[in-house]
Every structure is written in C-alpha cells, then in structure tokens.
Amino acid sequence: TWLIEHRVFDGPVLDPYAGAWAALNVYLIEHGSKMYRRSDGFGMWPMLIFVDSGSGKVTDTVYSFCRECVNVFPSKGFSQLKQRKTEKPDDVTGRTIRYRAAKIGDGTVYEINTNYYKDSLYRRLAIPRQDEYPQRGGFVEFPHDLPESYFEQLTAEERRINGTFYNPGGRRNEALDCFVMCLCAADVWLWNEMLNYRANMKAILNQAQLQEIDLAYVLSNIERLTARKNIPNPIGAKIHGK
Questions:
Q1: How confident is the model over 57-78, as pLDDT tens digits?
Q2: How far is CA 216 from the centre of its chain?
Q3: What is the DSSP string of 62-102?
Q4: pLDDT per position as a tens digit, 84-120
Q5: Residue 233 burial (CB < 10 Å; 0-12/13-18/19+)?
Q6: pTM to 2 decimals?
C-alpha cells in the first residue's frame, strides 16, 4: 500500500463553491488530466473519490459538492455496519459488512465500517520494513516529506480489546479518517472492476469460468487486461472545523 500524497486545503466549508471547496475543486480538475507517475513511467490518476459527509450543516454542503463532480461520492463512517435482513453477507469477509452503498435522494452515499478498516490499517502499520524489495503484502509506504503531525493523526486512536476504537483526549485524526476512506474506496473500485470484467466476458465464458474471475484475478492481471490504460488512485477527503 502506498500513500502518494496528503494535502490540506484551508478555508470555510459551508459554501460548496468557495473556501476550501474551491481549492479542492481546482486540485481535482488539475489531477483529472495530470497523472501520478511510477518510477517505471506507468501513469495513475484518481478514479474514485470519497468525501466525509461529516455532521450538521456541513453534510448538505458535502452532498451539493459531490453532485457537481464526476466519480466523487459522500461517505459516512460507522463503528460497525449490521447486516440487514435483505442483505447478503460480505463476499470477502463472509460476515462483516465492510461498506454499503446507500441512496440519498437521487445520489449515493457510501457507508463505511470504520472499525474494520482501522483494524486493517493498524495491522498493516505493524508490518516491519524489509531490507529487500518487494516488501511484504500490506506494508505501507509513506512519502519522505510528511510532517510528524501526520503520523500523530494517523495513530490518534487506540484499539480496545473488543475490537472497537476510541480517541483518548479527542486528538486530531483527519489523516486516519482519510486513510480509512482510501482503503474503502479501493475495495469499492476493485469489486466493481471485477463485476465489469465478468460482464464483459459473459458472452464467451460459462458460469464456472466467470467465477474464476475473482479479486485476485483482477489484481494479478490488471495491467495486462487494461493494456496501457491507467489504474486508479483513491482519494479520501476529511472536513475539519466549522
């Protein structure tokens, strides 16, 4: 897992066309055509963007901003997501619901099981760096120029014995929330990509062969299957302040 960039946009957040939102919009427009480049030249740009819908007056502002953008969705964190009677168990975990796409008027909000993703992140942070590459699966690479305050926010919460998380002293945790949204956005994109592959191959494969196109298949073949197209970089945006 690679954190490519963490950026803060300062300004008022109650007007979706001004303040921090205007700065974020300029950033999204610029990066819609400007790719991030790997060391081998392979390009990536944001394909799926989550914005924390927050609470109170800012929630409607988030909804308004997301409606004006492409592939930008509001998200809402919950400590847990209970399985509904009409809902199947999560295809990956077998039980725990990682996320849920819920309707809000004519739009969609992604509900996120924050305990699941925080636990996943903290387990990744415990993976030690190796002297040789590639690193172990799940290892997190960070840019070298991140300030110490970023890591203080990333590890602001502590895990209880029962698996839930709490924030002692109410420390700032925007970096943690953004990382959680990015992990969830990556899951959402990967799952939808798998369904797209199956739909495209439905005319030439039988049902058993279609089931072989799973998440591991997509991950291992993504660059070959997309030829010279570009893979996405999820973004999580956290609103802080009033």
A1: 899 999 999 999 888 999 999 9
A2: 19
A3: HHHHHHTSSSEEEEEEES--PPPTT-PPPTTTSS---EEEE
A4: 888 888 888 888 899 999 999 889 999 999 999 999 9
A5: buried
A6: 0.87
Please report where in the chains the tokens 């480049």 appear, as a residue: 37
The closest of 99, 89, 114, 127 to 191, measured between CA atoms, is 99
In this structure, the number of other CB atoms found within 10 A of the CB of residue 199 comes to 10
Could you check whether the bond before residue 134 is cis, i.e. omega within 30 degrees of 0? Answer: yes
As separate numbers, helices (DSSP H) first and strands (DSSP E) second, the chain gives 7, 10
Query: In 10 A of CB 185, how many CB atoms?
Result: 26
Indicate if the alpha-carbon torsion angle 71, 235, 100, 138 is positive or negative. Answer: positive
Two tokens at 123? 């387990």
Helix axes 19-33, 57-67, angle to 10 degrees: 30
Distances (CA, A) of 192 to 2, 3, 67, 213, 221: 21, 22, 20, 12, 15
With 80 as the cut, is the pLDDT of residue 33 above it? no
The b-or-e profile of 4-34 (16+ CB within 10 A means b, else e) is eebeebeeebeebeebbbeebbebbeebeee
Quote the mean pLDDT of the chain: 87
Rounded to whole angstroms, the Cα distance separating 31 from 46 reads 7
Cα 112 off chain centre by: 10
Match 């700032």 to its residue by tokens.
172
